[in-house]
Amino acid sequence: MGSNEDAMHQFERKELSQAFPLSDGWKRNPLNSPGANGSTHVFRRDLRVGSESATVIVRYETVVNVQTVTATRTQYNLNSVKNRIFLMVPKNADVTSFSLDNGVITMSSFG
């Protein structure tokens, strides 16, 4: 029998697949094992000229901990200009204290 955490990660993978579909050429590379508070994934795809990459920091908290996200960016050196960074959070999460240049993806499965 699976745990609640397993179910959360199944929904997470579904949401990530919808945002970055394999049919559009996206390839997912998880940077860390999913934990109780979230995970980090890098998506890449080849284009006619060059490639495109996006990093998604997944958090399950309803209030985003800015220090945790900043630490994740630093840990994985995610400050490259060529890498778009997204924060994926539950749809009822408070992200007002968080400034992210590239965007927030809300998970319809949570919240």
Structural class by helix and strand composition: alpha/beta
Strand fraction band? Answer: 25-35%
Average pLDDT level: 81
Radius of gyration: 14 Å
DSSP strand count? 5
> Strands of the biggest beta sheet: in what spatial order?
1-2-3-4-5
Q: What's the story with the biggest beta sheet?
A: 5 strands, mixed
What count of helical segments does DSSP give? 2
User: What count of domains describes the coordinates?
Assistant: 1
Distance between the termini: 24 Å
Which overall shape is indicated by the principal axes computed on the Cα atoms? globular
Helix content: 10-25%
Poorly predicted runs of 5 or more residues: none
| Helix-strand string | HEEEHEE
Task: Outline the structure in words.
By secondary structure, this protein is an alpha/beta fold. It has one domain (4-107). The protein is 23% helix and 31% strand. The chain contains 2 helices and 5 strands, in the order αβββαββ. It has a 5-stranded mixed sheet with strand order 1-2-3-4-5. It starts with a helix and ends with a strand.
